[in-house]
Amino acid sequence: MHQSLIQIALVVNDYDEAIQFYTQKLQFDLVEDTKLSETKRWVVVKPKGEKGAALLLAKAASEEQKRSIGNQTGGRVFLFLHTDNFDRDYKNLLHHHIKIINGPREEAYGKVLVFEDLYGNLWDLIEPPTPM
Is beta strand 54-59 parallel, antiparallel or unpaired with respect to 7-12? Predict the structure, then answer.
């Protein structure tokens, strides 16, 4: 059996501000932006070079969904972004004034820091150690 995780829904306040943040500040690629109705779009972004999972930016459509924006995991780290160059990406976060919650630090699993996206969701940026 083969399965793969292809998209993760991320509830956002506004499509365009989310696209701007993920493509310009985190330097993700905009994969799709399709209008489905007057109020709904299918918006997909993914990290450059990623062949697996992408983010489906889903605009909150109810008060319950609006309350979950920025807190989809109850305050825990939500997403884990692996990188091949921690220092480059750390400098990019600083350049774009993205809030660093803790780190950077060295752990057994690599260089890591926790940052906050535009809505307050927590992300780990991780560069795994180079195999021997």
Answer: parallel
CA separation for the pair 4, 53 (Å, rounded) = 8
**Considering only CA atoms, which of 103, 99, 86 is closest in space to residue 21?**
99
Put simply, whether the predicted model's pTM sits higher than 0.85 gets the answer yes
**92 near 73, Cβ under 8 Å?**
no
DSSP codes of every residue in 46-96: E-TT--S-EEEEEE--SHHHHHHTT-TTTTSEEEEEE-S-HHHHHHHHHHT
What strand order describes the sheet that includes 29-35?
7-12, 54-59, 41-46, 29-35
pLDDT tens-digit readout, 51-87: 779 999 999 999 999 999 998 888 899 999 999 999 9
